[in-house]
Amino acid sequence: MTFFDKILDVIFPNNFKCIFCGCEISASCPPYVCDRCVKILPFINGKICLRCGEPISSLSDYCIKCKDNIRFFNFARAPFVYEHPISTLIHGFKYRNQKYTFESLAKYMEECYIKNDFQTDLIIPVPSSKKRLKVRGYNQAELLSKQLSKSLGLELETDVLIKVRHTPPQTTLNYFERQKNLFGSFTVENREKIIGKNVLLVDDVLTTGATINYCSEVLKLSKAKKVFVLTLARTQSELAKKG
């Protein structure tokens, strides 16, 4: 490669690195994933709960959590199960400042949105508390939402759903403990922006569904018409795996 070619390669690069394994690939747009890594991504395929989108193997159309609990969101979907290597990438994106991956990750969410025929008017990210924002420096759900807003042509509203109370980490809590932990932590401002609208609520991972359910309830109490949920990944319970 000549010196001139090297300069052109810096300005107009043709080679990119796979966001999973780091190998060089040729690409013009995200997602930047090599052919080998695409084959091992834990895409959600097959039967899912019609409400929360959890992969299930039972004869029922709904998982046990959706059958036994009130769900305020209309339905939730995600392109991936929260398993390696997606879980590793999300962890880096969320806790290790690896923000360079969000554009590629949002591309898979965009494809999921189109595949599931979402009909929404605007996007609202699940907000972080001021304390968490100060520590992390950014809200991963908002970064994903900004990219989705561009690619889907939907209005992004970041001043509607507000987290007014910091909540401790919920990783060790069950669904009911999470609900109690979340009580009074979210509120709606500028409610005129969502009255009669179909809202797309965006987050990185859906676990028990407690957070998105609470946020959906608050949005509907503020007269949102419908609330749909799109996350990058979602966990699958052992019970759902066994059917």
Strand residue percentage: 15-25%
What does the overall shape look like? globular
Domain unit count: 2
Radius of gyration: 19 Å
Oligomer: single chain
The tally of strands reads: 10
What is the CATH architecture descriptor of the largest domain? 3-Layer(aba) Sandwich
Mean pLDDT: 88
Largest sheet: 6 strands, parallel
The residue ranges in which pLDDT falls below 50 over 5 or more consecutive positions are 7-13
* Tally of alpha and pi helices: 10
CATH domain fold name of the largest domain: Rossmann fold
Could you spell the SSE succession in H and E letters?
HEEHHEEHHEHHEEHEEHEH
- CATH class of the largest domain, named Alpha Beta
Helix content bin: 25-40%
Overall structural class, as computed from helix and strand content, comes to alpha/beta
Q: What is the terminal separation in angstroms? A: 57 Å
